Amino acid sequence: LNLETARSTAVSRLNRMSGITDEQQTGGEMIIDELSTLWTALVCYVVAGTVAVVAVVLGRRPERTVLAGLLLGLALHTASIALRWERLGHGPFTNMFEILSSNIWSLLLAFTLAYWRIPAIRASAAVVMPVLFVMMGWLMMTDRIDGHLPPTYHTVWLYIHIGLGKVFLGAVLVAVGLAGVILLRHYGWGRRRFARLPQDARLDDLAYRCLAIGLVFDSLMLIAGAIWAQDAWGRYWAWDPLETWAFLTWLALVLALHARVTFRLSAVTGATMVWGVFVLGFLTFFGVPFVSMAPHKGAV
Amino acid sequence: MRWPRLDVRLAADALASLRLTLVFIAWLGVSVLWAYYREEGRSVILALPLAALALNLAAALLRRPALYRNGPLLAFHLSLLALVALAALGRASYLTGRVELAEGVPFDAAALEAERGPWHRGRLQEVRFMQLGFDIDYAAGMRRGATRNRVHYIDEAGFEQQALIGDMQALELYGYRFYTTHNKGFAPTFEWTAPGREPVVGAVHLPSWPIHEYEQANRWRPGGAHDELWVMLQIDEPLADAGSAWQFRLPQQHRLIVRAGEQRQELRSGELTTLAGGSLRYLGLRRWMGYVVFYDWTLSWMLAAATLAALSLGWHYWRKFAARPWRPDD
Questions:
Q1: What pLDDT, in 10s, does the model give residues A48-68?
Q2: Which residues of A touch B42 (CB under 8 A)?
Q3: What pLDDT does B105 receive?
Q4: In the prediction, which pLDDT does A236 show?
Q5: Minimal Cα distance from B98: which residue of A?
Q6: How many CB atoms lie within 10 A of CB B320?
Q7: Running DSSP on this structure, what letter comes out for residue B197?
Q8: What is the 3 state secondary structure string of A211-227?
Q9: Which residues in chain A touch residue B75, judged by CB atoms under 8 angstroms apart?
Q10: At B9, is the pLDDT very low, low, confident or very high (cuts 50, 70, 90)?
Q11: DSSP label at A287?
């Protein structure tokens, strides 16, 4: 009996930490499973990422270990998202906790695919994973409240819009890893440590291809978003904060790709532009909703 | 003094410069930022760099073989040009507006608060529809769910129809789209009779509910009345429950407090009171719904142009990258 009481108190405390009141909580076991699965997934990612960074520093190649860690993390993360989806009856779209979690998942999926399919660039995990660590830290500090799906989110365009956006950001993330290697080499630190990766020109070419894929999917994401906005709010484009910054991101992407066609850019300049696009895209995805999401949410 | 002769080809070549494209893209970016922080003159601020980009692109399409000999790239850039042209036409002929309609009240184009483009030539005056009432679900925590709004309308062939509209489902008549909004509330309906005049029926739209739950009052001056009427709704039963799911509905138990000058009256449905300048009968409470009205004939064309642009860009890159797959050691 004492053990049961202690367990119940612990569940209650964990839920309070998670922003879930006792009244809201209908199945403490499930919530614990959902969160503990997510935390375990994050541990897998962090271990895999740390191994990737240390391996680059020490000049080792534990690539299978890193891939296994990423895959295990993705499997657990998928399970966690599925459990939450099942419990709440909607996908991870409604608050910062869900948006961060689902984007960490999709970015890792995109990078794991690149890691698996393009062995020559695996060491770029040492650049990509620390970026994702920042998002994971943010996720852990975010209120884990249950979101409510506004009535305007009951549409297939939500899935299309978000899915296309995830492909866009995933493609840019792969480019960011390659650009990071180029920049680290340029500034000296990475010259020896990333010696086994292809030449800068080859990395630059691959980063360019990733940006091009990103542009196509970013364009489709904006179109799907406009269709959704027209149906939901009676306007396809209204220059609200998210739309404005999404368009600026698209313009930055166009500018970066056009500059490559216009000038013979050095790999370092190209890499700097990739990072510029990523920072803008990152701020649009995660910074602008943090400041204002009013037009993109159902009001009372 | 002789003016230098303008060589059209040279001018087109200069205008088709890719460097100029970069400058114009950067200009558009700055304009977007400018328009974001200062709404005044937004259209002009955005139109100038877009026009410059369109000119630059048109010149490039004429003068750069790399563009006009590459099918997918040509389709992409032509689609972009079409998008800019359609956006300009859309802005010249658009209409956006807001209107509130109480149950049983037909839509009146004159009541629409609208912005419209200078070339707007729609058939708004021919639109006939009437608000029949609505239900809205709320989840615990005052979180709005589905809106089911019933309308009666006359279609473009002249037939009477009924429809259920709401979230993601607009009523479309003569190219105008009527969208329900979160803006809705209660409307006490009165019959005002001034001596020697025909009785007038009017609905006073109270502020949106439940967001303005504690401000359910408004003013109305019927024709011939000496004083403006101040009307407040007093609901005597719990309607909205923040702790559990509920549905938007009319209150069964309520009173109206009506003030006209120094007079103060409490009215229930069907009651009559005499005020300075006439008599007022409270007919009952109705619901009103706020609509967003939208008209832009370019919408489907813009969608087609944008989709073609994105797909042809994808096709271009696919061909380009498939022709020379990436290898680490090229």
A1: 999 999 999 998 889 999 999
A2: 239
A3: 93
A4: 94
A5: A234
A6: 14
A7: S
A8: HHHHHHHHHHHHHHHHH
A9: none
A10: confident
A11: I
